Amino acid sequence: MATVAQPQQSPTAETAQLDKANGSIVIQDLHTSAAKLSIAENATVDGSTDPVKTPFINPSSASKVPDPPSLTPDQSTKYEKLLTTATSWTTKPSSTPNTAAIPITDSDRIWLTRECLLRYLRATKWNVHEAANRLQATLTWRHEYGLENHTPEYISPENATGKQVLQGYDIAGRPCLYLNPGKQNTERSNKQVEHLVFMLERTIDLMPAGQEMLSLLINFDKKMGGDRPPLWQGKQALNILQSHYPERLGRALVINIPWVVWTFFKLINPFIDPATREKLKFDQDLRQFVPPSQLLETYGGDVNFVYDHDVYWPALNELAAKKRAMMMERWVKAGKKVGESEYYLRGGEPVVGNGVVENGHA
């Protein structure tokens, strides 16, 4: 990674239109560089305030992204070994027997960040060989599951009622993904799991510099009734989360739990790893976890949010696309290296030290 601080840029007519009422920003050009824009507190993409109809652009001033933990000498050594291994990969295996390996792409290389490697090391208790195997398995899964084919247009019907909403940030700057099972609008199918994965990817897109986890908020309101996801679907979703998104869940906040859902949780409990289980919080005051100014009213917050699919869906996906374009631009400028720092890619200044690295090295 380049060590010269990136110059700060002012917003231009081509990159953003500032709304005079509240300083919100309307995305116009999705291929702009990482301009650092002065945006008002709790600004939304379209400037809506009451009701709010589009995502908040940044965390509240009440949120603070924690500093990353320092690595021990042994952990640094293991990271360097994994980085050397991952840098050498030119192909990823196919899950189909007797099938040729699949070439590594730039999409794979930018995904293999320093923080990504460290997440897999932590998930495998710092076993370098196991972490490498799991990384390759996820590279294969991402290709064969067809993540890049799950376009906003393909997923759109699943979210027409707002059964999943990405909105705001918790007190640690983790983006909040709301699940509203009572707004279920489609028949049970694999596409419902694809929808969840799509929203997880968009949640990751919106993470601020220095944050690599998300908060999951689930409201089982009365509309849930006696219906619940089938056990196979719950197991499939858990397997994807635990196998291919390790160390991504910061907290899961669940409210209004009917007895039938408690039964469902008991059924899937054996499939939840202990670390994930500790992050689950049931029927607590969510204002202690999410600033009220960015917490939806239906979850006990102050945000009057109204879901309008024709407004929210394009705003979310345009904002996420802009973030991805920014990260790709910075990655290319820094040399297209495996092990690049997510902190840098998400707009942080490339200063060596304090958890930020040069060329992927601690």
Structure description:
By secondary structure, the chain is of the alpha/beta class. The chain is built from 11 helices and 9 strands. The strands form 3 sheets. The protein has a 5-stranded mixed sheet, with helices on one face. Helix 6 (190-205) links the parallel strand 6 (175-179) and strand 7. The longest helix has 25 residues, at 309-333. It is globular, with a radius of gyration of 20 Å.
Give a brief rundown of this model.
It contains eleven helices and nine strands. The chain is α/β, with parallel strands linked by helices and 362 residues long.
Mean pLDDT: 84
Number of beta strands: 9
As a percent range, the share of strand residues is: 5-15%
State the share of residues found in helices, binned by percent: 25-40%
Give the CA-based shape. globular
Structural class: alpha/beta
**How many strands, which pairing sense, and closed or not: the largest β-sheet?**
5 strands, mixed
Distance between the termini: 12 Å
Within the largest sheet, what's the order of strands? 5-6-7-8-9
Low-confidence stretches: 1-38, 353-361
What pattern of helices and strands is seen along the backbone?
EEHEEHHHHEEHEHEHHEHH
Number of contiguous helices: 11
Query: What value does the Rg take, in angstroms?
Result: 20 Å
Keywords, separated by commas or semicolons:
362 residues; alpha/beta; five-stranded mixed sheet; 9 strands; 10% strand
